[in-house]
Write a structure and sequence with these properties.
The chain has two domains: 12-215, 3-Layer(aba) Sandwich (Rossmann fold); 221-314, no CATH class. The protein has helices at 23-27, 29-38, 55-65, 77-80, 98-107, 140-155, 172-197, 230-239, 298-314; strands at 12-19, 42-50, 71-74, 91-94, 115-122, 128-135, 207-210, 217-223, 250-257, 260-268, 275-278, 324-326. The chain is α/β, with parallel strands linked by helices.
Length: 327
């Protein structure tokens, strides 16, 4: 019996429309290169779309120099997606403007494409967070949740871009931490591109956040006319969660009001399934501890109340206390 050597089949190409061709897209090149090296069946071809003259072309050139076939379009991603033919190829958003992310999510509603996206956010507390999402074609609830969040973020974002987040005017700790956050994003890209190309749903939660570049937390979005007690808000969500929540792990509530956005980190306790609100905000102006319930002196209670009010205002992102974002 003779052994026959089977010649490998040529890889079929999968064009991935990539909104944005700046810092985020460039840092994500390695994820696409690694994916192509691992896949024996498909080869990704990113098509970079950016309105800044020459930017998409320059990134496509750098990608080709590294062995990644790439194309470029000078234009706006929100306009390009309107002209896309029917298809299932994924869409990646490396955009620094939250309003553009929201518009693309709105425009692609009802299509068969999975949308991946990433955003770095510098909070008013000077903490660096990162957001990532993978919205499946028919997940209308997740799409609506993400669209509402990015619309709210856009309304309270200072127009200064990457220089204040991870650039020359950023906190030195944030510049040092950027590689961790980029790796967190790249891992998401590689994992989900593989699943989408194979016809499988995305992995993980539709919308995720990290404050350290390694720990992923599901994020849920709640809108209201005024700020609410975070504990009450969390218990209502746990009673009817919009996404699966795991005991013993944290999740993040993005609370949106006409005033701005607040983030609450919540722990669903392992022992009894009860909740504990931690992280950025534990109280709001409406639910501060009363002097009667404080075990200390009235002076201590007054001080605690004043401190809670100050912290509540300081950790709320508004137009007078804005965010900074970048791709």
């Amino acid at each position: 019996m003779t052994n026959k050597r089977i010649a490998p089949k040529a890889k079929s190409t999968v064009t991935v429309l990539n909104g944005g061709a700046h810092r985020g897209a460039e840092r994500n090149l390695d994820a696409l290169l690694d994916w192509n090296q691992l896949s024996s069946r498909h080869a990704l071809v990113p098509r970079y779309v950016d309105p800044v003259p020459g930017r998409a072309t320059a990134l496509a050139d750098r990608a080709r120099e590294r062995g990644l076939a790439a194309e470029s379009i000078e234009g706006r991603i929100e306009e390009e997606v309107r002209e896309l033919p029917e298809g299932t190829e994924p869409l990646i958003l490396n955009l620094d403007r939250a309003d553009t992310i929201a518009e693309v999510l709105r425009t692609t509603e009802g299509t068969a494409r999975t949308t991946l996206g990433y955003l770095l956010v510098k909070l008013p507390t000077k903490e660096l967070w990162a957001l990532r999402f993978a919205i499946a074609p028919r997940d209308t609830e997740a799409r609506s949740m993400a669209r509402r969040l990015f619309t709210a973020i856009a309304n309270i974002t200072a127009p200064r871009g990457s220089s204040f987040v991870v650039g020359e005017r950023a906190e030195s700790a944030h510049v040092a931490a950027e590689p961790r956050f980029r790796a967190w994003m790249a891992a998401h890209t590689k994992e989900n591109l593989g699943r989408v190309v194979a016809g499988l749903p995305p992995d993980g939660w539709p919308l995720e956040a990290t404050a350290d570049g390694s720990t992923s937390r599901p994020m849920v979005v709640v809108e209201g006319n005024a700020w609410r007690d975070p504990a009450v808000l969390a218990r209502e969500l746990v009673a009817s969660p919009p996404v699966p929540l795991i005991r013993g792990e944290d999740f993040v509530i993005a609370e949106i009001t006409p005033e701005g956005v607040r983030l609450h980190t919540v722990r669903l306790r392992l022992t009894d399934g009860d909740i504990r609100v931690t992280g950025l905000l534990a109280v709001t102006r409406d639910v501060l501890p009363s002097p009667e319930s404080d075990a200390g002196s009235s002076a201590d209670a007054s001080h605690a109340r004043a401190t809670a009010i100050e912290r509540s205002e300081r950790t709320t992102a508004t137009r007078l206390n804005p965010l900074y974002t970048t791709d």
